[in-house]
Design a protein that fits this description.
This protein has a seven-stranded mixed sheet with strand order 1-3-2-4-7-10-11, sandwiched between helices. Strands 5-6 form a two-stranded antiparallel ribbon. Strands 8-9 form a two-stranded antiparallel sheet. It contains twelve helices and eleven strands. Helices cover 34% and strands 19% of the residues. The protein is globular, with a radius of gyration of 19 Å. The protein starts with a strand and ends in a 7-residue tail after the last helix.
C-alpha cells in the first residue's frame, strides 16, 4: 500500500484511489500525483497509488484484481477513520479494476462505498467494452490498422483475427478471457456484461470490512459517483479505440479534423454501451497526432519519461477534479463537506 498525504494544517477527508493498467506498477501514477498536489485543497486528499496488482498479477483477471483492490482500500480505511469521501482514477485496465472494486464495496443501504461518499470517477483510455480482434465490437485498433496496409494488409489482418483470441487468452490468462468475453459457464453471463448490472443475490464472501457479504452492485456503485469522466485517444492508441474509451458508438463521435482520426475503430458492444450510457459522463477527447515519442495509450497517463507529452492531460485532469469539486459543492444542500 502506498498512501500519501499533501502537507496541510487540517486532516484529510477525501480518499483518491489511483489504479494502474495491465502489467504496470504504482509508479505509473507518480507524475499524476505530483500534478494533483497542485490542487488548492490538495491537503484534503489521501492519494492511494494501488500496489496490489503489479506487473503480471494483472493477468489474473479483472475480478481477482478488483478483489485485491477492495481489500487494499479496506486495509487503508482501518487506519484512517477520518476519511469521508472517495474518488477513483483508473488508466486502461485500471478503470475496469476500479469499477469492479467499487461494485464489491458498494453499500445499497446508504449509497456509500466502504462507508465513504462516492465523489468522482475518472478513466483514462479504459476498455469499458472489452477488446476483440473481430471487426465490430470493441475491435483492437492495431488489428483494424493492419487491414489498411498496402498489398499484404488484408492477409495480415485475417491472420491476426485467426490467432488473436487464442493468443490473448493464453498470454493474458484470466484477464484476456474477460476482455474477450470468453468467460462465463452455462447460464452465466460474461464479466463485461455483469459489470453493467447489479447482482444482489451473489455471494461476495468474507472480508471487505465484514464477516460476510451478499451482492455485487457494479451499476449502482458507478452511478453513485457524483461525477464521471472518461478520457479517450482520438487516434494512435494501439489498444483501446476512441469509441471504447469514451463510451460512444461510431455515429456518436464528434466531427473532427480528418487528420486527427485514424480509420478502423471498433463498434462498441451494444448492451454494455446502452447500460453505461444510462448515466451521464463527461467525455474528453485527446489527440497526440504530433507526438514524436511514446504511444498514445501511455501518453494519456504520462506514464514514463517517454510519455511526458501527456503532461497536459494531467493538468486537464487536475482542473477537471477542481471544477467538479466546485460543482458538487454548489449543488449540495447545506454546507459542502
Amino acid at each position: 500500500m502506498d498512501a500519501t498525504v499533501a502537507e496541510s494544517s487540517g486532516s484529510p477527508d477525501h480518499l483518491l484511489v489511483l489504479v494502474h493498467g495491465l502489467a504496470d506498477t504504482k509508479s505509473a501514477w507518480d507524475r499524476c500525483v505530483v500534478e494533483l498536489r497542485n490542487m488548492p485543497d490538495a491537503g484534503r486528499y489521501v492519494f492511494l497509488q494501488s500496489a496490489v496488482n503489479a506487473r503480471w498479477r494483472t493477468h489474473h483477471g479483472v475480478d481477482v484484481c478488483g478483489q485485491r483492490l477492495a481489500e487494499e482500500i479496506c486495509a487503508l480505511l482501518a487506519t484512517a477513520p477520518g476519511l469521508t469521501h472517495v474518488s477513483m482514477i483508473g488508466h486502461s485496465m485500471g478503470g475496469m479494476i476500479a469499477r469492479y472494486a467499487a461494485g464489491l464495496l458498494y453499500r445499497p443501504a446508504d449509497g456509500t462505498i466502504a462507508g465513504l461518499t462516492p465523489r468522482h470517477f475518472v478513466t483514462l483510455a479504459s476498455p469499458h467494452l472489452g477488446l476483440t480482434v473481430d471487426a465490430g465490437p470493441a475491435q483492437v485498433p492495431f488489428v483494424a490498422w493492419a487491414g489498411h496496409l498496402p498489398v499484404l494488409g488484408g492477409a495480415l489482418q485475417r491472420g491476426l483475427q485467426a490467432i488473436g483470441h487464442g493468443v490473448a487468452a493464453r498470454l493474458f490468462s484470466g484477464t484476456g478471457r474477460h476482455f474477450l468475453a470468453l468467460d462465463g459457464g452455462p447460464g452465466e453471463l460474461p464479466l463485461l456484461i455483469r459489470m453493467t448490472l447489479d447482482e444482489p443475490d451473489k455471494w461476495v464472501g468474507t472480508g471487505y470490512g465484514s464477516s460476510g457479504l451478499w451482492g455485487c452492485y457494479f451499476f449502482s456503485a458507478l452511478r453513485a459517483f457524483r461525477t464521471r469522466a472518461c478520457y479517450g485517444n482520438v487516434g494512435r492508441d494501439h489498444w483501446v479505440s476512441w469509441q471504447n474509451a469514451t463510451l460512444r458508438d461510431t455515429p456518436q463521435l464528434p466531427d473532427l479534423d480528418p487528420q486527427l482520426v485514424r480509420r478502423g475503430r471498433g463498434v462498441v458492444v451494444s448492451f454494455a454501451l446502452g447500460r453505461l450510457q444510462q448515466m451521464p459522463w463527461r467525455r474528453v477527447d485527446v489527440s497526440f497526432a504530433g507526438a514524436r515519442m511514446g504511444t498514445a495509450h501511455n501518453n494519456i497517463q504520462a506514464t514514463r519519461w517517454t510519455n511526458t507529452v501527456g503532461a497536459g492531460v494531467l493538468r486537464h485532469l487536475r482542473q477537471h477534479l477542481e471544477a467538479m469539486e466546485l460543482h458538487v459543492a454548489a449543488h449540495s444542500p447545506g454546507r459542502a463537506a
